[in-house]
Design goal:
With about 140 residues, the chain is α+β, with helices and mostly antiparallel strands. It folds into 2 domains: about 30 residues; about 100 residues, Sandwich (Immunoglobulin-like), CATH 2.60.40. Helices cover about 20% and strands about 30% of the residues. The strands form 2 sheets. A 4-stranded mixed β-sheet has the order 4-1-7-8, with no helix packed on it. The longest helix is centred in the first third of the chain and has 28 residues. The chain starts with a helix and ends in an 8-residue tail after the last strand.
Length: about 140
């Protein structure tokens, strides 16, 4: 009987250890719920800050998959903040276009890598070939 009690205690301990190992394995394999506090909806809209250093007024467009989206117009030697349409927050081929009114030359940026809520900074130069784009993470981030 004493031997049987020892086998029963060993068996109970073995079952408890197996259940504990199973619980640990399940917990480590479970997916954690994603923290949505930094998700696209919480980061705010993506904006384009335009610093127009050109004499001409410029019309600013977002260009994606061959389609132009007019963002707004910025007066010569002025600054403006324009909103990027939400449907463009996830595109991978976004370019910004600065088209001076009354001029034949325009600025087309390279494709821009950004995340929803970032700030796209478009600097329009005194001549179009001196224009550039920078990306700042979020509203208070640093330029990338």
């Amino acid at each position: 009987m004493n031997n049987r009690a020892a086998d029963s205690g060993t068996r109970t301990l073995l079952v408890a250890a197996t259940l504990l190992a199973l619980a640990v394995a399940t917990a480590s394999c479970a997916t954690r719920s994603r923290d949505t506090s930094d998700g696209p909806a919480d980061r705010g809209p993506t904006v384009v800050q335009v610093d127009n250093g050109n004499f001409s007024d410029v019309v600013v467009y977002a260009l994606s998959t061959g389609q132009y989206y007019r963002l707004g117009e910025v007066t010569g030697h002025d600054r403006a903040t324009l909103s990027l349409p939400r449907q463009l927050d996830t595109v991978s081929d976004l370019r910004l276009v600065a088209d001076p009114i009354g001029s034949r030359s325009s600025y087309f940026s390279d494709p821009i890598l950004f995340e929803p809520g970032d700030v796209l900074v478009l600097n329009v130069g005194p001549t179009m070939n001196l224009s550039n784009v920078a990306v700042r993470a979020g509203r208070a981030g640093t330029e990338r």
